[in-house]
Amino acid sequence: MLQKKKNAVLVDGVILNGPIMDSKAGEKFVEEACKIIMEEVIRKADDVTEKVCEWRAPEALKQILDLEMRDTGESHQKLLQLCRDVIQYSVKTSHPRFFNQLYAGIDYSSLVARFITEALNPSVYTYEVSPVFLLVEEAVIKKMIEFIGWEEGDGIFNPGGSVSNMYAMNLARYKFCPEIKEKGLSGLPRLVLFTSEECHYSMKKAASFLGIGTENVYFIKTDERMAANMVVKCGRLRNENQCIKRDVKYSGSAPFLVCATAGTTVLGAFDPLDKIADICEKHGLWLHVDGLLKKCYSAKAAYLFQQDKFYDVSYDTGDKSIQCSRRPDAFKFWLMWKALGTTGLEERVNRALALARYLVEEIKKREGFQLILEPEYANVCFWYIPPSLRQMEDGPEFWQKLHQIAPIIKERMMKKGSMMLGYQPHQGKVNFFRQVVISPQVSREDMDFLLDEIELLAKDL
Amino acid sequence: MDERAGIGMTAESNRLEHPGLDKAAGEEFLREAFQVLLDEAVRRGTDVTEKVCDWKEPQELRELLDLELRSGGEPPERLLERCRDVIRYSVKTCHPRFFNQLFSGLDHHALAGRMITEALNTSQYTYEIAPVFVLMEEVVLAKLRELVGWSSGDGIFSPGGSISNMYAMNVARFHRFPESRRKGSWALPRLALFTSRESHYSIQKGAAFLGIGTDNVHLVGTDERGKMIPEELEKEIQRAKAEGAEPFFVCATCGTTVLGAFDPLGSIADVCQRHGLWFHVDAAWGGSALLSSKHRHLLAGIERADSVAWNPHKMLTVGLQCSAFLLRDASGLLQRCHGAGAMYLFQTDKFYDVTYDTGDKTPQCGRRVDCLKLWLLWKAAGTEGLARRVERAFAFTRYLAEEVKRRDGFQLVLEPEFINLCFWFVPPSLRGREGSPDYWPRLGKVAPAIKERMMKKGSMMVGYQPHGAKVNFFRQIVTNPAVTKDDLDFFLDEIERLGRDL
Questions:
Q1: ipTM
Q2: B362-376: per-residue pLDDT in tens?
Q3: CA dihedral A225, A226, A231, A235 (to 10 degrees)
Q4: Residue A434 contacts B, CB cutoff 8 Å
Q5: Looking at CB atoms within 10 Å, which of A125, A339, B172, B340 has the fewest?
């Protein structure tokens, strides 16, 4: 592996002349690993005769997978086998019958972009290190802002919606009282924020992480349509509130943010944004974005954001982020958009909603299936009531028994590997299935299969 | 050209009977793109005869890339062209002459791991969704903890060292004030945290983000080698207490960003113990030195820390991002601090042991799988192979330091302890003129000028920065295992060539 030349330069016992890596062998490995990916993941992605998951209990899987990290390396063949094992026992989230989460499926252009990203391994903090990806991010954010309907705006890609929500909370807080960046929250009035009781749990995590406190998140009741209604709550708190001035003692709480949800996690509900916006405007809870992102987060590290660079440093947008190194997440979206065009993306969304509507109609037709509510979006929530429970009277015993049905069906489907579908209890309702259609691979027959398979798996319950 | 003839569309995609994707076309596109990637990003990207970067001004690059997102799609040939353009105009961070950041290089096994990760596209929150990766993450974290010196503990992979540092701050706050999670920091006394002047800026960002406030970050003095002075830490803590603040957290740095300095962990641990403060070690950069029996002494005392941040995506060439947040506590503190128990994700009536659903330990919900690339690399190289890489990086730095001392016009800023090599290049016109009043301002203009020239030429990339009272100097970092002595000789020769006439 190390070359020994006549004029070997030896430092601290290490020969420095030749490279330590065998690039040829390495490239071969990458090629062969990608062949495995093509065969085992990509080609099989739409094959409904393949399993969605190869279920093994944790202790059993630990035995099968040779996870131990040893002192010496493994052979080329062994490493390829390890890759095969990892793929075999991983859940196939691109399978047409993977409905478990709010992500699924495969898009080829996005995947290509992701592979390119990995090969280039950039970090999106400065123009000098990632010129292309910074400009791509800027273009994508601009386009997304256009869709929202703003004339101008700002933004950044983050490691997840939870972090994006944290950014919003922090920015709102900063806008409300910029001194918090330096002084912190200690001794300030109790900052409070409003969100619906259906909101994503990242609001709670964000409140605690940011030092606001989960107690100071007010969860507004949702109506039958499960959308927010905040007038009463907001008004009451406003009466208690007084001006925030550093030198003025005051009591009470300070509302500073409202978080509405467009597409709640379980039910897929959309808060009535216009009405909420009216309330926010009335109470001065509205967030305008103008250079705020940069002011709020900037730390101006001199070793990274040098001001004497030879190019326009306003392109070094990395200081808008809480992160230092950052992945170019906008690129995969950009390449997919280029491949499909806005029209193509729109068709994907419409298709997913059309499939959801089809499923809803089928559920209504079939005995034993009961819709929780008419879906507004792509989440279809329903109970499956097995034959044995259909004649039972509505009462605590019925609901308790029904609560146990979904987990059993879930266990059976996973052990069989035929599909994956999420269930949960919610707002006083016992365990029900939450079906979400996202993947462009999914077709009508997969919706039929879904219902058939549930019936099949629950026959004897 | 049919605007809709993209690989994402089929004629029947409006009908629900058929899939909404053209699989054959998609796979063909993938195959061709993979070839482009292998040839142009991997092979050419690591080839010394190729450029490190193809410099373009922002406005020009915008036009070249044709960034606009339109209503119609594009055919595969056009998309492949775009892929080529993206690769061409991106900086080749895997190039043997890319020395600009604390990461560089390309490891083929890690790359394979990253590509498998992308193809499988899953989130790391529950066992049902990511069975292999939940188990794997635990094994990898345990290995890292073992190297730190802990036989048990906890941890998680996070989206970067900045966020790992923030987790440490949050867990420390929660540990001291469990009610802070519910009540928030407004009800707490004014907290104080301590870190060195040389620490990473994520400590400031973290303090602001967490609602603690950057004013309450006490920057402790460092010696001429950039190391925290424990006596100064003691003084700062006393001062904070006298002002009525409540110290709760100390962050020592192992491998500072600019100078690569290591804080004296043993003495700092003593101070923390004395005052009952959470002791966090930001070893994002220097943590990988633990792999080498020769060099791990730099982190002596790390086992006394309460938490450690360590980024294998830096020195181990694993690929962004891979940042481990490690915790000595094994009582479930991380879960208690961050857990929300969302019933739609962490159901308690699942048919398997739900303690394997580790996703609630983190403030994130969906989370990337960052363990596979490190695990596969480790399987390929073994702990010994990784140790050799670390030692090689040290040896390279030693070689460069000696060369810098030997050559005219090169001046070390300080003797490197780690693999940050900091030096000035003094062009002939300034040599011997240290006495003149404008020496330093003029010297400060040299590095930016050389940087501009090297980037426009595309021959290499190295970072520079001012630091404290010191004017701009170069910070040379070698982590790429593909680098050879020739590259280092070239590096110094090229600086001479580019700076000769300044």
A1: 0.93
A2: 999 999 999 999 999
A3: 160
A4: yes
A5: B340
